[in-house]
């Protein structure tokens, strides 16, 4: 039939026509058209994760049909997103900066796989800083570190209504999205290992006093896990904060052995103290592990490089960072997420622990 006035040949079905200029087609448009999550489109584009051939072909077909071009500027304009997340990491006294930066690097590298940059906020501004960041159009969501048990930022997070994830747990995580190592269980695992070797008197050399004084969550949760497990297993336990430096470590060890000459187990949750503890014990007449067994809660690199190699519960910085970014992206895209993600600790037995001396 000939074309009538106003007809210009056959029309494409609605689903086959771009609904907007190709320059303004977003990754969300592609995901909606292909019937997949935004993260799936991102993985197809980046090749960072295996996607089934069927799904990959469907996504690529949608990209071609919609004329999508992965241009960050056009995506941000069309979606009204900044493609930036804020990592709020106040640098405070007692923090082990090299360890903290492992978490930060995991966040940065993971964010890049989903085409987001990271704004690192290190000033300790508390709620006012959060309000300032959230009120701007600079970021799509917030990641918070160094979470305290009674963190002054938490009430504001509940009010802001902006996507946010905490790397750490406050005392009351209701209404929040949190991810971290299960530090309570990590402390218990250390006690269970030492008790299983026959050690009946153990001590925790923990973070500097400032970390406990401001109520930092990981330190308190570890301490509580150690005390709970020790009470359950009938193990005598003492917890002592430990400042940085060989002199401070030596002072703590001398005082511990004066109190308990037969103490035979140590748990160290202070990366800067690992080396000094292992170096000081022999100077006090205690061999490791023949006289004193030592367990660390620290990154694997500290444990592997120690002499002797340290039995430890590692800090899964990379996994925590990946989980935090994944949860935040799901919230940014309106997807449901679990309130709590606790990573199970794993104990790696090396050369620093052995049966208790008889």
* Shape-level CATH architecture of the largest domain: 3-Layer(aba) Sandwich
Q: How many domains comprise the coordinates?
A: 3
Instruction: State the distance separating the first and last CA atoms.
Output: 101 Å
Shape: elongated
Protein name: Transcriptional regulator, LacI family
Domain HTH lacI-type: 25-79
Keywords: DNA-binding, Transcription, Transcription regulation
InterPro entries: HTH_LacI, LacI/GalR-like_sensor, Lambda_DNA-bd_dom_sf, Peripla_BP_I
Overview of this protein structure:
The chain has 358 residues and is α/β, with parallel strands linked by helices. The protein folds into three domains: 65 residues, lambda repressor-like DNA-binding domains (434 Repressor (Amino-terminal Domain)), CATH 1.10.260.40; 127 residues, Rossmann fold (3-Layer(aba) Sandwich); 131 residues, 3-Layer(aba) Sandwich (Rossmann fold), CATH 3.40.50. Helices cover 44% and strands 14% of the residues. The chain has 14 helices and eleven strands. The chain has a six-stranded parallel beta sheet with strand order 2-1-3-4-5-11, with helices on both faces. β9, α13 and β10 form a beta-alpha-beta unit. α1 crosses α3 and α5 packs across α14. The chain is elongated. The chain starts with 26 loop residues before the first helix and ends in a 15-residue tail after the last strand. The N terminus is likely disordered. InterPro entries: HTH_LacI, LacI/GalR-like_sensor, Lambda_DNA-bd_dom_sf, Peripla_BP_I. One of its GO terms (molecular function) is transcription cis-regulatory region binding. This is Transcriptional regulator, LacI family. Keywords: DNA-binding, Transcription, Transcription regulation. Pfam families: LacI, Peripla_BP_3.
